[in-house]
Amino acid sequence: MKTLEDVLAKPTLYDVVIVGGGPSGSACAYWLAEAGWSVCLIEKKHFPREKTCGDGLTPRSVFQLAEMGLEGIVATNGHKYNGLRAFGFGATLEMNWPEHPVFPNYGYTITRFNLDGLVAENAEKSGADVLNGVEALGLLDATPGRDGELVAAKGVVVKDKDTGATAEIRGRYVVAADGQNSRLGRDLGVTRNRNWPMGMALRGYYTSERHDEPWIDSHLDIRDTNGQVVPGYGWIFPLGDGRVNVGVGLLSTGGAWKGVNTTKLQEYFVAQTAEAWGLSEETCLGAPTGGRLPMGLSIGPRVGANTLTIGDATGMVNPFNGEGIAYGYESGRLAAAVLGEALLAEDPTALALYDERLDAAYGDYYKVARGFVRLISEPKILQACVGLGLRVPPLMRELLAIMANLMSNDAKGPAEVGYRAMSRLANAIPAQAWEMVFGDGAKA
Ligand SMILES: Cc1cc2nc3c(=O)[nH]c(=O)nc-3n(C[C@H](O)[C@H](O)[C@H](O)COP(=O)(O)OP(=O)(O)OC[C@H]3O[C@@H](n4cnc5c(N)ncnc54)[C@H](O)[C@@H]3O)c2cc1C
Q1: What's the confidence (pLDDT) of residue 440?
Q2: Could you give the domains of the chain?
Q3: Is the pLDDT of residue 134 over 90?
Q4: Fewer CB in 10 Å around end: N or C, the chain?
């Protein structure tokens, strides 16, 4: 990895400066560097670094990693699994990932400690300058954007966290990939639509003899010590290295998690699964840590005169399943393609294509997902859906394909037909009525 001194030694105007070396920033840097553009990727931590996550890669993530030439190394360092095992209201169902013309029918688990550095290193091998331990403090020469646009900037002001030195890094374009609490995003002028769902999750590691099971487990009915169902869901993801990742998540649809203590929720969930998985104080590897999951493209605007937001910084997490790694890679790649077009044509207005392509790829899907989340945040509806779904395996398998966004666009299977019907319904309902029922807007 380069040092800040190396980068400053040659006065450079980068084509693109990217802040944040997680999945979205590293993928964006990789695709830009592969296309021959000069890129500086700025990450405030030193890799390998911890990142609170369930550590689960679905087939969509595996596909993007394979596209970046990284599947082999992920396979060596991670744990391959076949699908999802769902539990709820007395029923259990094992579901293989569906067969798909593009995406593989398997996933991996791998800690973010081990994964994220690989992707950043890959960007560096392709020619990007990757800085570790360097924090972006703010925008350089910011100018306000037009109505509905991000602020524009000539680069970022950074601080080397080891030496304390500050410097300016200049770029034709600036990308915010600094995650769910995006400081750069706030400087760029983004806001989150607070009527749309938001996730909150907590995870911890345990040693377990069952660390190499071929399923990731999802529990849809967490119970308190009195056996009462409490709002939230739990997961156990085997890591294949002697450990399992154990976590809980909550969905907020208009403040629904007020009063729910996630630490208590994690305690209830661990108690519920302790015997089956050997979870105890002795096998616990440390206190759990948590984070937020901004979802459904809830953060905007996403484009300015020479600026873009990607990944969690623009709310890319899939509301159906809380998955954000694949959508970080995908939005980073999409942004890289548009930036390449703008650079080639020397036409910054081409950035508007990013908004259009994101809406085309995810707008309808995320709108349906946001409606679904609002419905199942009603405990009685959740219980009815899960209770019925897990007892009708074919139905649940189709739902899995929809929830993991693994449908084939032109296929005629039940998942595709069902989803297209939901999508048509979502778009047929007048915007005002949709807003009243789902607290949502017409446009994604
Ligand atoms: C508890 C939990 C469990 C989850 N489980 C899963 C899961 O199993 N599978 C899944 O697909 N998704 C999961 N997610 C979601 C997933 O973690 C995120 O969607 C994903 O990490 C988003 O990638 P990103 O690159 O946008 O942001 P991040 O991964 O957050 O990366 C942002 C990077 O920017 C850096 N940064 C921040 N500020 C600055 C700055 N000022 N200067 C320089 N660098 C900066 C940070 O250090 C970080 O490395 C989970 C999230 C949580 C909270």
Answers
A1: 60
A2: 4-52+60-78+111-194+295-362 (3.50.50.60), 379-438 (no CATH)
A3: yes
A4: N
212 neighbors 378 (Cβ within 8 angstroms): no
Choice from 174, 293, 316 to test ligand 1 binding pocket (greatest atom count within 8 A of CB): 293
Give the pLDDT mean for 9-17: 91
What mean pLDDT value characterizes the chain? 92
Q: What is the pLDDT of residues 365-404, one digit of tens each?
A: 999 898 888 887 777 787 888 888 888 888 888 888 888 9
Q: Is the CB of 291 under 6 A from ligand 1?
A: yes
Assess whether the C-beta atom of 187 lies below 6 angstroms from ligand 1: no
Q: Please report the pLDDT score of residue 436 as a whole number.
A: 65
**Residue in 176, 439, 424 with CA at minimum distance from that of residue 298:** 439
Return the pLDDT at 432: 65
Q: Read off the pLDDT of residues 39-77 as tens digits, 9 standing for 90 and up.
A: 999 999 999 999 999 999 999 999 999 999 999 999 999
Counting from 1 in the atom list of ligand 1, the atom nearest the Cα of 49 is 49
Output the CA torsion sign for 302, 307, 310, 315.
Answer: negative
Q: Is 179 in the pocket of ligand 1 (CB under 6 A)?
A: yes
Ligand 1 atom with minimal separation from the 134 CA: 43
Q: CA geometry: angle at 365 spanning 70 and 405, to 5°?
A: 40
- Separation of CA 422 and ligand 1 centre (Å): 30
Per-residue pLDDT band for 442 (boundaries 50, 70, 90) equals very low
Per-residue confidence (pLDDT) for residue 427, from 0 to 100: 72
Closest ligand 1 atom number to CA of residue 289: 1
Closest ligand 1 atom, CA of 178? Answer: 34
Is the model's pTM score more than 0.70? yes
59 lines ligand 1 (CB under 6 A): no
Q: Quote the CA–CA distance of 136 and 166 in Å, as a whole number.
A: 10
What sign for the dihedral angle of Cα 105, 111, 112, 116? negative
DSSP 199-260: EEEEEEEEE-TTTT-SEEEEES-EE-TTS-EES-EEEEEE-SSSEEEEEEEEEESSSTTTT-
Is the CB of residue 420 below 6 angstroms from any atom belonging to ligand 1? no
